[in-house]
Amino acid sequence: MIPAPGKHWFWYGGRPFEVWFSRTENTHERSGRRVESLTFRTLGRKRFFLQQFADDVVKCHLKRQGVQSYLYTYNDGWDYVEGYSPRLLESVVLEPGEKEHMLRDMMQFRRSKQRYERLGVPYHRGYLLYGPPGTGKASLVSALAAHFGLSIYIINLADFNDRSLMSAVNNVPANSVLLFEDIDCMKGSQSRIESNSGAGQNGGATPGTKDFAPNQNGVTLSGLLNVLDGFAAPTGVLIVMTTNHVEKLDPALLRPGRIDYKLYLGKASDRQKVELYRRFFPESTEAAAWEFVEASGSAETMAEFQGLLLALEVKSFERREESSDRVAASHGILA
Prior knowledge:
CATH topology of the largest domain: Rossmann fold
Distance between the termini: 44 Å
Radius of gyration: 26 Å
Strand order of the largest sheet: 5-4-7-8-11-6-12
CATH architecture of the largest domain: 3-Layer(aba) Sandwich
Order of helices and strands: EEEHEEHHEHEHEEEHEHEHHH
Number of helices: 10
CATH superfamily of the largest domain: P-loop containing nucleotide triphosphate hydrolases
Shape: globular
Number of domains: 3
């Protein structure tokens, strides 16, 4: 519940509190985003009561964050995405052992904070999910984050430059998932080019050496690497990248410490399709599942096959409704 702008009173811990809610439009930022602020006051001369109230608010927020998974996008600040519904882990169907192995890896990382600190190693871990579109990369991230009660902070590098990327990453809290979607689509990435000119007076590149050509309107490769494992790297965060074209990624991005775990998600196998069919229609036999899979061979990815299942579910629902209406009409229930 959000109060209307202005002054309001409420009781907390047996004391009266005043809250002043103000709302302004910030025209200095490119998005013109709305800025809201809350100012709290209470009676008395001791700050203890306000501090206790603030501590209780923080504890409540952290407790809520720990048991639910939320989605945030960046627009000159992290915005909560209303209506986001995390995927259930059991609803993501992969090849045998793939999901369980990645789950164990994340669990081990989350239990290893003291070991990282003792070794002097930055406490974060990078994951790369790659493969054709529609193979379940985003669904897997959503399900794993929900399983651990972690919120997802999603970044599309095409919308950032080096400065805004650093600002966004610096405001990602610990115990979160930082998701770089379609990392290969970084429009301002630094391309490594072969220099054909000799070294000049100002230190130009020598023939055959690789140089960086930054695009001023996007994220450079060095800017991205800096937020992954430089001084600006987040702590206690699971960094996940997805791509449809792993061959387009610079090798510097893929080295251990930046990417520690890789998982290829390819075209759907018949076994995956059968398992997903049985989730949609648990009352059906395995033979019926295999028959449907064989008849829908054109669906190569799990997303395509799921679309066929949804269409089949709609038809099944409509048939059940028609049958129910006929039964009701035969008993004179319908007018």
